[in-house]
Amino acid sequence: MFKKLAVVSSISLLLATGFALMPAQAELEFRGTISGDILDTSGEEDTPQVLEFRNTGQNPYNGDFEAMKKGYVIFSTACSGCHGHLAEGKLGPALNDDYWTYPTNLEDKGLFETIFGGAAGMMGPQQGLLTQDEILHVMAWIRALEKDPKKAQEAVDAFEKKNS
Ligand code: HEC
């Protein structure tokens, strides 16, 4: 009887210390879309949304209209010169359809890796130019272009109206 108890308690002690030693969450590894090199996502003051994204690979701003509006404003200054006013394509390819040069961009993790780490030629890394939180906002607007074009256009209109 006593022996059995001892075994049970040592197992629970083992479990308890095991859990205590486990890191709270393990972050995903982000790699350059072309280079495959590990991207350094450290060194910024992370928002809870950025932390969530780096753990799940899912953009928590997807579908969030406020985030899309902010995302479009960032896009219009940081990206539209090359990708076009509504991401219809210019020097850089269109980002408003389901065709991707790099199929990894179909997933949010891949899209982040392309924007944060850059791709070929003029598509330089946005690391250091935009915060990771800003990149997630831009991504929310880009995703809406294909998944919810009406909302994406409303985000554009909200900005244009304010500035006209
Ligand atoms: C100086 C011009 C320039 C700017 C600024 C720029 N891009 Fe690009 N972008 C390009 C070019 C050129 C390519 C094609 C590169 C390639 O195919 O590797 C590209 C490719 C991409 C791709 C991959 C598309 C695909 O079909 O797989 C994404 C996503 C992207 N850009 C997003 C952005 C976002 C978001 C911004 C703003 C934060 C931005 N770019 C800013 C020129 C630019």
Q: Which value, in Å, is the CA radius of gyration?
A: 21 Å
Quickly give the CATH architecture: Orthogonal Bundle
Which small-molecule ligands are present, each listed once? heme C
Taking the sheet with the most strands, its summary is: none
Give the rounded overall mean pLDDT: 90
CATH-defined superfamily? Cytochrome c-like domain
Distance between the termini: 81 Å
Taken from the alpha-carbon principal axes, the silhouette is globular
Low-pLDDT stretches are none
DSSP, total strands: 0
- What is the third-level CATH name, the topology? Cytochrome Bc1 Complex, Chain D, domain 2
Strand content: under 5%
CATH class equals: Mainly Alpha
Q: Count every helix, treating DSSP H or I runs of 4 or more residues as helices.
A: 7
Structural class based on helices, strands and sheet pairing:
mainly alpha
Task: Give the % helix.
Answer: 40-55%
Number of domains: 1
> What pattern of helices and strands is seen along the backbone?
HHHHHHH
Binding site for heme c: 79, 82-83
Organism: Methylobacillus flagellatus (strain ATCC 51484 / DSM 6875 / VKM B-1610 / KT)
Signal peptide: 1-26
Protein name: Cytochrome c, class I
Structure description:
With 164 residues, the chain is mainly alpha-helical. The chain has one domain: Cytochrome c-like domain (Cytochrome Bc1 Complex, Chain D, domain 2). The chain has seven helices and no strands. The protein has helices at 2-21, 48-56, 65-78, 80-83, 108-117, 132-147, 149-162. α3 (65-78) packs across α6 (132-147) and α5 crosses α6 (132-147). It is globular and about 80 Å long. The structure holds heme C. Heme C is lined by residues 78-79, 81-83, 91-93, 95, 100-102, 105, 111, 114-115, 119-123, 126, 130, 138. Heme C binds at residues 78-79, 81-83, 91-93, 95, 100-102, 105, 111, 114-115, 119-123, 126, 130, 138. Heme c binds at residues 79, 82-83.
